[in-house]
Amino acid sequence: MRATKRRPVSVGEMLRIEFMEPMALKVVDLAQAMGVHRNTVSNILHDRTVLTAPLAIKLAAALGNTPEFWLNIQHACDLWDTRNRYNEVSKTVRPVVALKTG
């Protein structure tokens, strides 16, 4: 997989730019639709928390898309962050080579 220099769009950015702003949706309204506290939505919106599967299910149900949509965004950010944080460590790992039998 090709490493990118720019961090992928976060769940909070996607939520704000593609859903909340165009729909003129307020945090409290989305929170009520999802059945969660407004602080939960605010934390997602401002990338102060990692999106979990249960929250992805609720977010998808409220906005008419899929949990996989939201979890793929979260996964892309997590992987980018981890890859950039541990880049030097991975250089010391040797690949495993299968032994030939026979």
TrEMBL record:
One Pfam family recorded for the sequence: HTH_3
Protein name per UniProt: XRE family transcriptional regulator
NCBIfam families: antidote_HigA
Signal peptide range: none
Presence of keyword DNA-binding: yes
CDD domains xref list: HTH_XRE (cd00093)
SUPFAM superfamilies (UniProt xref): lambda repressor-like DNA-binding domains
UniProt keyword annotation of DNA-binding present: yes
InterPro entries: Cro/C1-type_HTH, Lambda_DNA-bd_dom_sf, Toxin_antidote_HigA
Keywords: DNA-binding
Record PROSITE patterns: HTH_CROC1 (PS50943)
Domain HTH cro/C1-type: 29-70
GO molecular function ontology, one term from the record: DNA binding
